[in-house]
Amino acid sequence: MEILNALINITDKGAGFLHSIPALLIAIPLGAAFLAPILFKLWKRLAEIITGLAVTACLVLAIYLVLFLGNTPIVYTFSGGNWEFIQNLLPLGIVFVVDKLAAFMLLVVSILVFFAYLFGLKYLERFTGLGKYYTLYLLMFTGMIGLVMTGDLFNMFVFMEIAAISSYALVAFGTEPEELEAGFKYMVMGEIASIMILLSIAFIYSSTSTLNLAHLSYAFTQMQTQMASTPGFRAGFYFVLILLMFSFSLKAALVPFHSWLPDAHPSAPAPISALLSGVFIKVLGVYAMVRILYNVYGFSWESSPEVFTALIVLGLASIIAGSLLALNQKDYKRLLAYSSISQVGYIILGFGIGNLFALIGALAHILAHALGKGLLFLTSGSVVYRTGERDLGKLGGGLGKYMPWTSLTYNLGALSVAGIPPFLGFFSKMFIILGAIDLARVWDSDPSKPGWTMIAVAIIAGLFAVVTLGYLLKITNQVFWGKSEEKRTLKESPFIMVFAMVSLVVLLLAGGVAFFFWLKPELLGPAADVLLKGTKYGELVLPGLFGAGG
Amino acid sequence: MNWILQSQGFPILVILIPIVGALLAFAIRPIRRYVAILSALATGYFALRLFLGGPGWIQPIPLPEIKAFGITVANSLQADGLSNLILLLISGFAVFIFIYSFYYKGGPRDDWKFFTFALLTYGAANGVALAGSVYVLYFFWGVLLVTVYGLLFYGRGDVEGSARKMFLLNGVADFILLLGLLLLVIYTKDQGAAGQLSYGHAGMGGFKLDSALPILSFVCIGIGALTKAGSFPMHTWIPKAAETAPAQTMAYIPASLDKLLGIYLFVRLCYSLFDISSNTAVQVIFLTIGAVTVLAAVFMALIQKDAIRLLSYHAVSQVGYMILGIASGTLIGIAGGLFHMMNHAIYKSTLFLAGGAVAHRSGETDLNKLGGLARTMPLTFFSFLVAALAISGIPPLNGFFSKWLVYQSFVEMAKTQPVFILFMIAGMFGSVLTLASFLKLTHGIFLGRRPESLSKVKEVGFTKWFPPLVLALVCIAFGVFAYRLPIRYLISPALPAWNGLVVGWFQPLQFVGFIILLVSVGFLIYLAGRAYAPRTRKVFIGAEELTETEMHYSGPHFYSSLKDIKLFNEFYRFASGGSFDIFHYIQGIGKAAGKTLKQLIDETLNEVVKFVRYIFMQAGGGLSRLQTGGLQLYLGWVFLGILILIILLLGGGGNA
């Protein structure tokens, strides 16, 4: 506790515990990441214990943030190195901003990281080099947390790279030839996107002289007026935007930038697959893109319909192609990986529709898919743990008899991902579809906008929810139900793995039950509100600047 | 928590008890059968209390509001007369089915699936009946889809196929239903309380079908409701399911629950929500669906050789009568439709359960291999016979009376529009064909010569003969005392606007007296006939004695020989006269029509399903081929994507 107090005192002078949480959330996993391999040399279990402590602490802090964060965001400035921060006016130093949206994302990330850690305790016993594993695991966690909280474009890039480079190594962690190949391909594709982000950062910095997100939103607002008069300026503006959207789409594995994902996600160990599909692509791709498009650029349907059209096209392409590809898969984890592409398509579709319903739906789907797909990947880990087999044809069916808990949790998780009430996944998809219908209603009163296209979008989204159930039940039928031909001597996975899976199911069910009572009014609504406020984000973070500027 | 055990909490209890039961049955497998029966009895008790309490006894239970399209819908659970009737019937059938399935030795091992999913289905069905607003209704409707899917996985053979078929057909229909319900919400936004299920509750105060929105809403909800009820042409999963699912599943889902819920929603639609008689075109469409359902399904039933499959086609056919009655839009027709729904659930459950008992003992459902079981299984035979006569509409059984009410509504309507009498004729013709197919079925199973292979068949145990017998007795009671029992105590409370008046004259009691008289005369003649006892002789051909098997001649086999008869012969026989020949002739037409319809509808639907699946798999396969694993190709994809982004963002011209 003394260390904690010291940390609080160093990082933030006199502003209360809540305001120092951002620093703790970075410091705890980062510190633990470097302690883990040293402790691993002393005693293997110590690495596990220190990781467990760090992960649990972060989960507790995230829950604390969600419960006690007010309507004004926490702005935490790391002002080491003699940088002066002119209060509320000019952003010098590294800024962390925790608003309701960031707090929500922190909660999602922490929950899944926690349960994946629990699952991994038993699952990873057969791997060697666990000291390195825990370092990479915590670094990836740090990267995601930092990315969610950062208020600075370059820092966003840095944290993205921390998370991404750790994930390249984790995908190849098994060091089998296929895994190394998948990791290599993943790295090439991922780095192309990263370099493009760096390039766009250079462009942005050269034209605005700032990288602080709040300050940028102010600069972009000014730029909109310039843009109308100078055509060349407009092309440059959009060039940077396209670079950013492409890079984030690649990180989020939207079709047609998805090709790395079906190789990379199944190759990783199951807890890592769960994290990659469950939160990683959403934080690095979806959250970063949405934060920049909504809060920094301040786009809306009225000002730039083309951006939202692009999001809807990408989303629909991902939903359709991902589902159709998943139908044809013969590998347990590969099928789930394609399903992730399709489900991220729903999330992007929700953000593309962009009204309150769709935003709530998209955010809820981030949570529902993180828990649901994380759970499904964990069940794949459970099956692999006992059978050593991922091929649906060779698994041969009837596993439900031997592994009842894995079977039950898989089936319930599949129902949630497919959007069957009363699970959380139903409400998220319902709200996305309601958003499309609502937008169609708004458009109908405007003859220049084709309202039926939105109805068509709603119908496609609804139809592919059925396809989702179709391909997920394929695993149910071929793996868990039915009869196996030979007698087997299998048993259920160890308790801690079952515990992680069952907990996720319980959360999915609780989320569905509490959706209208707690989740929507307390968590999703305020988070969606942050996005709807657009460039108000800048005013909240740097009130002085906006007061002075306009 | 005390309030929940008082009357106000009953609606919640009837939903929760089965669901808790299902969880218990799933978690503690050894007690699943007891849990099922106990939860059904407990739920039934509360359903009965609700019914006896009458409409208005329970205040609607508010649920959280849902706001969509700027329209706030107040959600609630409510128990009015119609809901109470449906709740009572659901519980009644559930009790019988669970007793019946108590011992099922030799059945598939995993019968926890049956108990778990049947209980979940039970809870969700109660939820549907109690829903006060469209969202609550759709919520439980969606749960039902999943639980029935799970339920169909219990059985033998291609269970996956039948479950998938059910899921596909009902999934599409549910989607259409959702569309209809949302349109209803939009249409009713100015009505004070949007999206409720009981406008104009005092009687025929529904909305007029006078513009596109209500008509579209009506048709969409109608499709959803009739598909659930198993109407033509969305019925094809039922015969398919009959091949794999055991008798109790068939008796529980397509024969009882689906009918109850589908017809319940259809009555709500025609009685509380919209006024179907305000738009003759829509009405004629739905009446035609009803008439076609009656005839097409009964034609198909005529050519079946498998007992359970034959029964499943009748489960489709009888829905037609309910649609005819309710879509007639007259109160007497709706009363007839409801009564028929109730009766149908009773006698069709009896038939499935009795048929299941035969299958259980003999291990056989092929009519060619059955026969002569009447003597060894008298109780089952009696139940089966009564239910078969009831379904064929023979007075004074209940099936006759409800059909009679339906016909009355057409007599009434024909006073203004004579063409409506055609639907009545279609219904009567359907009854005749139903009788024909049940003659074949009863003969095939219970009469005729018993094959050697069935010599060891005995009567089934108590749990297997008791439920059908009770249901058969109910068939008789509801027919003979139609006015005194079911009409007065069950139907009238559900339709407060109906005065219980029946236009035509039919007095069941006097009719029963007449029947008894006829039977006595027949018995006297029989006794007189006994005086000349027949002589027994050995049968031989060419000095060779014939074995039992060689002399065996199964009833259905006799029917199947009709296939070889040329059309010319049909005409010849018809011309030469004789009632039996006309019967053949009808059979011939029936067979032709049945085959054609089967080809047209079933096969077409199957092909459509296959086609959609093929397209999806091919599309997925095509996309898979692009996933070569080559990094160069992937990068090519990436740059194609950037091109798309450039076109989308710059090509549109933006706003500037």
Spatial arrangement of strands, main beta sheet of chain B: 1-2
What proportion strand of chain A? under 5%
Beta-strand percentage range of chain B: under 5%
Total count of helical runs of at least 4 residues of chain A: 23
Count of DSSP strands of chain A:
2
User: Which structural category fits the helices and strands of chain B?
Assistant: mainly alpha
Low-confidence stretches of chain A: 10-14
Order of helices and strands of chain B: HHEEHHHHEHHHEHHHHHHHHHEEHHHHH
Mean pLDDT of chain B: 78
What's the shape of chain B?
globular
Low-confidence stretches of chain B: 558-585
Give the C-alpha Rg of chain A.
Answer: 23 Å
Structural category of chain A is mainly alpha
The main pleated sheet of chain A reads as: 2 strands, antiparallel
Distance between the termini of chain A: 45 Å
Which descriptors would you attach to this protein?
heterodimer; A: mainly alpha; two-stranded antiparallel sheet; 78% helix; 2% strand; B: 656 residues; mainly alpha; 6 strands; 69% helix
Structure description:
The complex is a heterodimer of chains A (550) and B (656). Chain A has 550 residues and is mostly helical. Chain A has 23 helices and two strands. Chain A has helices at 2-11, 17-42, 44-68, 100-123, 130-149, 153-171, 177-208, 213-229, 231-252, 261-267, 270-296, 305-327, 332-353, 356-387, 392-395, 399-402, 404-418, 424-444, 451-480, 495-513, 515-532, 536-541, 543-549; strands at 74-78, 94-98. In chain A, strands 1-2 form a two-stranded antiparallel ribbon. The longest helix of chain A is centred in the middle third of the chain and has 32 residues, at 177-208. With 656 residues, chain B is mostly helical. Among the domains of chain B are: 279-526 and 551-564, no CATH class; 579-651. In chain B, 69% of the residues lie in helices and 4% in strands. Chain B has helices spanning 10-27, 32-53, 81-100, 112-130, 134-151, 159-187, 212-229, 237-244, 247-273, 280-302, 307-327, 331-362, 378-391, 398-414, 421-446, 462-480, 483-494, 508-530, 548-551, 555-560, 567-576, 579-626, 631-651, and strands at residues 61-68, 71-77, 207-208, 274-275, 540-541, 544-545. In chain B, strands 1-2 form a two-stranded antiparallel sheet. Chain B has a two-stranded parallel sheet with strand order 3-4. In chain B, helix 4 (112-130) runs parallel beside helix 9 (247-273). The interface between A and B is large, with 54 and 43 residues.
